[in-house]
Automatic annotation (TrEMBL):
Superkingdom, natural source: Bacteria
Any GO BP: translation
Keywords associated with the record: Ribonucleoprotein, Ribosomal protein
Encoding gene, per UniProt annotation: rpmB
Protein name: Large ribosomal subunit protein bL28
Family: Belongs to the bacterial ribosomal protein bL28 family.
Single GO term (MF): structural constituent of ribosome
Key word Ribosomal protein present: yes
InterPro entries: Bacterial_rp_bL28, Ribosomal_bL28, Ribosomal_bL28/bL31-like_sf, Ribosomal_bL28_bact-type, Ribosomal_bL28_sf
Keyword Ribonucleoprotein on entry: yes
């Protein structure tokens, strides 16, 4: 699973809890996209989460 190059957000692990309170392992995957960004004046392909894209933390190429 990819991590965000800006904030480091990746997969979160925890328990899925049913109505009868039985527990099973579960993964919540973050919404990470492969985006072409401008880094030091040159376009580069990075993995960036959508919250960083919305906040304007990256300059799209």
């Amino acid at each position: 699973m990819a991590k965000c190059a800006i904030c480091g957000k990746g997969a979160h692990y925890g328990n899925k809890v049913s109505h009868s309170h039985r527990r099973a392992n579960r993964i919540w995957k973050s919404n990470v996209k492969s985006v072409k960004c401008i880094v030091n004046g040159t376009p580069k392909r990075l993995y960036v989460c959508t919250s960083c894209l919305r906040s304007g933390a990256v300059e799209r190429a």
